[in-house]
Amino acid sequence: MGTSRNYQTEGIILKQSKLGEFDKIVTIYTPEFGKVRAVAKGACRPRSKLGGNVEPLTHSLMLLAKGRNLDILTQSQTINGFLTLKSDLWRMACGLYLLELIDSFTVEGGESRPLFDLLLDILNQLSEPDSNEIALRYFELHLLTCLGYRPQLRRCVDCDSPLKPTVNFFSPSKGGLLCPHCDSEENRRYEQIKVTSAKPSLPLSVQALKVLRLWQSCDYATSRRVKVKPELSRELERVLCEYIRYIVQRELKSLTWLKELRKESASL
Ligand SMILES: [Zn+2]
């Protein structure tokens, strides 16, 4: 007891929930300490200095005190509240999707500079007026790489032969592509054990493969220069989101919301 220790860090608020009448629990993503959960005391009081600074999608400079269970957020100063991003429903949904991805993939603690920088970069990009879904796909691909799930896109994950420029098959459970031969073998094995519910793999066109390979190895500015037609965009989304769903074992809420928003805007 009495060993509390203060530390300062920048961080991005991933989510918040109420704790009792006046306090909040906030989940923060920081570059040096990874994911941190902390209590923001009195944040629900009307004139709290913390209140507005602990909303999700806020980049802040924070002062925390080590607690016995949860740390205590004592001060928070907003660096960027991403107001342009929050002023548009689609952009905000995109931002919240990035936050949910980080929250779903990470545990508390652990150094995390590359992922923090990626998150901050893509949130800034999404604030630009001409941003589009490429930002989400780029984020997903590089998040997977940062966390050790980099999809194998060069060689078949079963027979290790270099992939040919034809339709190959992405296997979420194997984390990469199967050549057509190995994919049909895999399907046969699935049929033998009568697994009908789980689709073992998804077809991936030559064009989609080219785009994924490029994005995997380039910076965001370069990735944006690729012209992606809606059909190709859906294909890339399907493959990456299916892989993510396999890893986290559930559908992300914010992704469902994003898809609903798209449907609504298409029907206007
Ligand atoms: Zn193969």
Which term fits the overall shape?
elongated
Largest sheet: 5 strands, mixed, barrel
Give the assembly state of these chains. Answer: single chain
The share of residues in helices is 40-55%
Structural class of the secondary structure composition? alpha+beta
Ligands, ions, cofactors: zinc ion
SSE succession: EEEEEHHHHEEHEHHHH
Distance between the termini: 60 Å
Mean pLDDT: 92
- Please tally the helical runs, counting DSSP H or I stretches of 4 or more residues: 9
Number of strands: 8
Strand content of the residues, in percent?
Answer: 15-25%
Which ranges are low-confidence, i.e. pLDDT below 50, for 5 or more consecutive residues?
Answer: none
The spatial strand order of the largest sheet comes to 1-2-3-5-4
How big is the Rg? Answer: 21 Å
Topology:
Blueprint: E1 6-19, E2 23-30, E3 34-40, E4 59-65, E5 71-80, H1 83-86, H2 89-105, H3 113-126, H4 134-146, E6 168-171, E7 176-178, H5 180-192, E8 202-204, H6 206-217, H7 220-224, H8 230-248, H9 253-266
Helix pairs in contact: 2-4, 2-9, 3-4, 4-8
The structure holds zinc ion.
Describe what is shown at a glance.
The protein is α+β, with helices and mostly antiparallel strands and 268 residues long. Helices cover 41% and strands 21% of the residues.
